[in-house]
Amino acid sequence: MKKVLLAGATGYLGSYIVKELQEKAFVTRVLVRTTSSLQDKDFQLYEIVKAELTEPDTIKGCCDSIDAVISTVGITRQKEGLTYMDVDYQANMNLLREARKSGVKKFTYVSVLNGESLRHLKICEAKERFVDELKASGLDYCVIRPNGFFSDMADFFQMAKKGRVYLFGKGTLKTNPIHGKDLATVCVDAINKKEKEILVGGPETLTHQEIASSAFDVVGSKPKVTYIPEWIRASVLKLLKMFTGSKTYGPIEFFMTVMAIDMVAPEYGKYTLKEHFASLKSN
Q1: Cα–Cα distance measured from residue 163 to residue 180, given in angstroms and rounded to the nearest whole number
Q2: Does 45 fall in a domain?
Q3: CA–CA separation, 108 vs 52, rounded Å?
Q4: Quick one: pLDDT at residue 38?
Q5: How many domains does the chain divide into?
Q6: What is the pTM of this model?
Q7: Residue 217 to residues 90, 157, 162, 224, Cα–Cα distance (Å)
Q8: Closest C-alpha among 237, 260, 252 to residue 170
């Protein structure tokens, strides 16, 4: 029976991975910053290690007796004085060093789709720098490169609720976001697979216009869409870079960049975005 350490267990994806590990009978150790983050989560069946990945002394021995590590550790917004390099790169590096010391057999890391070509973005720069180190570590590894999560699509639904959706360009760009449960299955299955890199998206490839229409369908109102010209998007990015710090600019830079390109990965899973919008409505 393989024993797995999961770092990032209380996040959106991590919470689904915990359940998937349980369903597939893996012995699981979860690494968390604070036990308060476990509130409203059923972690009774797992070994819990309280540690801070950005502080190497607190994680010594965290990988002892572990066969495989899964890390979803990363931040969208820089906060608490921590940068993307502090968390997405250095925190994962600290974990990788512990994994090597303890003789871990497999390290699976969740990065981002098209991360290599988006290295000029601060958040991707940190993630891909860690990917480089992981590949050179000598450990068996797998880099999961998912498309956007369903949780990232909530803005479409919220705009539809307010009566109007704003899209960059003509709304023809495509993407296939993925549900956390489907992605969790991919991450856990990767433990026993030989692939070094897995690109994955949800089961439906949709244009931004189709996503907006789906949100309006669920809301039950007539679609009203405003199309924002590319030059406005580019100008806003330049102004933000000039007049805001990386704490503000970083997540906006990522969002406005990926919304201006096709983001399509191999299709996988069973959960649809429209079903997700329906769940948002019911909640």
Answers
A1: 27
A2: yes
A3: 19
A4: 60
A5: 2
A6: 0.93
A7: 43, 10, 13, 12
A8: 260
